[in-house]
Amino acid sequence: MIFAKELGDTLRGALTDDQRVVLLGEDIADPYGGAFKVTRGLSTAFPARVRTTPISEGAIAGVSAGLALAGYRPIAEVMFGDFLTLMFDQVVNHITKYQTMYADQATCPVIIRAATGGHRGYGPTHSQSLEKHFLGVPHLRVVAASLYHDPRVVFADFLRRDEPVLYVEHKLLYPQHLTLPVNGMVGDLIATSSGMLPTVRLSAVPREDCTVSVLAYGYQAHLAAKIVERLAIEEEIFAELIVPAQIAPMDWAPVLSSVTATRSLVTVEEGAGGWSWGAEAASVVSRELFGTLRRPVDVVASEPTIIPSSKAKESAVLVGSAQIEAAIRRAS
Amino acid sequence: MSTALAPARTDERLTGVPGEPLDHRRYRRMRFIRRFEETLLQLFEEGALNGTTHACIGQEADAVAVTEHLTEGDHIFSNHRCHGHYLAHSGDALGLMAEIMGKEAGVCRGLGGSQHICAPGFKSNGVQGGIVPNAAGIALANQLSGNDAVSVVFIGDGTLGEGVVYETLNMASLWKLPLLVVCEDNRWAQSTPIAANMAGSFPGRFSAFGVPVRSVDSTDVAEISQAAGQEIAAVRAGEGPRVLLIHTYRLCHHSKSDDERPEQEIAERWLVEPLVVHGRRLSDSDRLRIDDEVETALGEVVATARALP
To answer: Is the dihedral of CA B8, B9, B13, B14 positive or negative?
Structure first.
C-alpha cells in the first residue's frame, strides 16, 4: 500500500478503536476524501466523527483544542502545511500552553496533520516546509512522516500520550510505498532502530566503517537513503543515515553516538535555510563533540526565498538529491 | 483527567446564605466580586502583587446573572477579565487570591495568575478571540457525547476585532453547537472607544451567521438574569448557538492605572452601576449588613492568603 493509504488505514483503525477520536479538516468528507485522499471513506464510516469544515484553519485548530480539553482526541488535517500559519496562535497560545499553565489540571492532546513540502510545482504558498517555525515551541512535539516509520506505530504513540503533536507529511511520500525495516534491513542497507517512536539508522556497512553521519527526516530522508546506498555500492563512500520520527524535542543520543564514530555530520531539511533544525543540530553537536568533529557540521537546507512554480526554478531553490550528494561527498 | 489541586474554598458570606431572599443573594454575590477586585487593586498599590490584573468593576451583574443558570457539567470559558466570572462560578476567593499572589495554593499554583485560571467547569486565557473556538470545541464534545450541557464563552466588544471569532460562529451555526456567547460590550477596548473599533451593526456581527442575538442594555442583574436564563435554556434544548449581548460599562481602568476616558462619562455610569441599581431592592439595613459580612469574609481571605507559603 502507498503511504497515503497506510495513513488512511491508520486513521480508520484509530476511529474504530477509540470513540474519542474525531477528524476535522477541509474537504475531508467523501466522496472527495481530502486533497490527498488520505481520509477517503472515513466520513462514510464515521459520519459524526469525521467532519469537513469551512475554510477556517484557526477555528479547526481552536475547536480541536476544545474537544481535546473535553477529553476527545481530535486529529486536524491541514490541507497544505503552508496554512499552518493560520493556526499558529492556537498552537502557541492555547493548545501547547493549557496543560502547563493550568498546573496539569487539563490536557490538550490535539494532533495536527499537515501536508508539506515542494517539488510539485505548486508555487510559493502551497509548497513550503514550515515546520521549522514550530520547532522549539515549548510543549509541542513535531513528528515527521517517513517511509521507515509505520504510521500505525506513530499514531498509537500519539493517542497513548496526552501531548499535542504536529505531524508533517511531505506530499511526495503519499504515493510511495513504505520501506519499513525487515530483518534488520531496508533494501540493501542495514537498519537499526531505537526508541518508542524509533530513530532509524541506515548504512551499507557497520557504523565503525562509515566516515560521515547524515541526519534527515521525511521525504529528504528517502532521497538521502538512495544516495547513501548508491555511493556505497559505486564508490565505497560509506555514510550512516539517521532518520528520527520526532524532530522536536530531539533525542540527540543516536546522533551523538553516530557522530562519535564518523566524526562528521551532514543535516538535511527541505525548509528554508537559517535558524533551522540543522542549525540546532550543529549547535548541539558542536557543544557535545567539539573535539571529536573532523570538520564543521554541514547544514543542507533550501534557499531562503520563495519557492517558484517553474520546475527548473523550483529545483534551484529546494534541496534535492544533488545538494545532498554533494554535501555527503564533502563531508565523508 | 483533571486533578483538583485543592477543593474550592467557599464562604456563604460571599456566595449566598441558605434561605436568604434571591435579591439578597444577588446583591451579596455582586458585592463580593466588587470588593474582591477593589481589594486586589489596593494590594497592587501596596506592592503586594506581581504582574497585572483586569478588573470587571461595573460588570458584576453579568457574571452573577449568567452563572445562576448553569449547572454541573456546563463549562465557562473566560478571558483576561475573568475574576467576576470565576468567583460567580466557584466562589473560590481564596484560590483566586492565592493564585494572583503567586502562591502554591493558588488555583493554578501561581503559574497562571490573574488571566489563566482553570478549575472544574471553568477555564480562562489571555488571548481574546482564541477562546471562542475552544469553547465551541467543548460544545462539540457535549454534542457528540449526547448530553445537554452548555458551553459558555465570555467575550468583550473588543474581541470582535479578531477573525477566528467569525470562523467559529460560522462553524458553530452550521453544526448547531450548544454554545452561548456572552458578549459584554463595555464600550471601551482598552483605551479605544467602540466608535473607533466597530463598523456596521453590532448584532449583525452574529446574525450574519444565523446566530440569534439577544441584546440587553442594562446593568440590572434581574433583567440580565431573565434574558440569560431564556438563552441558556434554548441552547440546552438543542436550538444551536446563541448570543447574549450585554451593553454595560467598565467603571475601572483597563488593567491597573491606564485610564484616559472622559471623567464625566465615567461619573455618569457610577450612578447606574449594578450595585446601585439592584441595591435599591434591599433595605439600607440589609445592604449594610451584607456589606459588613462580605467585608469580614474577604478580610479573612486576604489574611489567610497572605500567610500562605
So the answer is: negative
